[in-house]
Structure formats: C-alpha cells, structure tokens
Amino acid sequence: MPDPFAKPSLAYPGALERVIAEFARLPGIGRRSAERLAFHLLKSPEPEALAFAQAIIDVKRTVRHCQNCWHLADGALCGVCADASRDRGLVLVVEQPRDLLALEATGMYKGLYHVLMGRLAPLEGIGPESLTVARLVERIKDPATNPGKAPVREVILGLNPTLEGDGTSLYLAEELKETGVTVSRLARGLPSGSQLEYASKAVLADAIHHRQAAS
Predict the structure, then answer these.
(1) Domain presence at residue 5
(2) Which of 13, 23, 161, 185 could form a disulfide with 157 if both were Cys (CB 3.0 to 4.6 A apart)?
(3) pTM, to two decimals
(4) Residues 130-141: pLDDT tens digits?
C-alpha cells in the first residue's frame, strides 16, 4: 500500500527520461541540450514525432555502404556507381561520405569515388586494416570488381590537407605504385589543416581541375 506521507517524485517520467538519456548519447549533445530536444519532441504533434521515430528506424534498416565504393546507399550500389554515364576509369579517393558530397556539389567531377571511411592515425590505433584500402587495391587490380568491369586508369587522392590526411595519401601512393595506375592528388588551393566539407565549391572545383601527380 502506497505511503500517503511519501513525497511525490520530482524526476521526469521514465519514458521521457529514457529519451533524454538517448539524446545525451549523441556527439556534442549535453544533458541540457538533450532535455530541450526531448521536450521539443514531447510538444510536437504525434504524427510529426512518429515520423521522426520512423525515419530513425528506416535509416538503420535500409542505409548501407555501397559494395563498390563504400559511399552511403539504400541498395547494393550508390547512385554514383550505378550511373553508367560516369567515367568509371577515374576514381577519386576521399575520407568520408561527406567529403564525396562536397566534391560532387562542384559539378566538376564525373568519375567514380572510393570512401576510405577514415584516415591513418597510428596514435589512435587506426591502421590500413581499419580502412577500405584493400577494397581500393582490389578495384584497381581486378577490373571485374569495378562498376562496368572498367579498368581504373587514374586514382586521385582527395584526402583532407591535414597531417593525417597527408600521411594517408603518401601511404596510398606507395601502395598503388606496383599497380601501374596513374596516381594524382588535388591541387593545393585547399588551406592546410582544413576539411573538404567546409571548402567552397569554387575552391574544390579548382582543386579537381588542377590536380597534380602524386609524388
């Protein structure tokens, strides 16, 4: 039997507390921000809140990595790899899907991509085995694994101009030497230490157009 003299609980209801806790687990979201998001969700019309919940379910169930380039896709191949009008002998290597989208927004590049899903960072325990380097080498050595079974004739290194990005570029250039493929890199109109996703379309377009042989 409940104690009639017990003080009422001042905690949030369990369901709301769980939503706050889940929001707080997101990168860059603290407890206060999580509470604001949770209360926004609570005050939203039910159809809107349920649509948000369904979008989360859909992204976890349907979005995957392209089996060819590791870009995000909702099928076996991403839209770029599935496009037969692209130059399939040209592959631009980037660190993350967001870098691919930044370069694609320039409208200057008509080849394919390869997403490494990161960059070499030995101090963080990230080595070649943690990236998709082996898949990239396979695409070059075996044209049958590239879209349209097209031989790769040039690989453009489009990694971020940071210490780790430069180190990864040097490693890839060395790894690709024995394949005989031409290896180039984006022109250095990009400020050192910057990120591709924050560069303007004009800067990225210039970097693609004036790419240089990788040393």
Answers:
(1) no
(2) 185
(3) 0.76
(4) 999 999 999 999
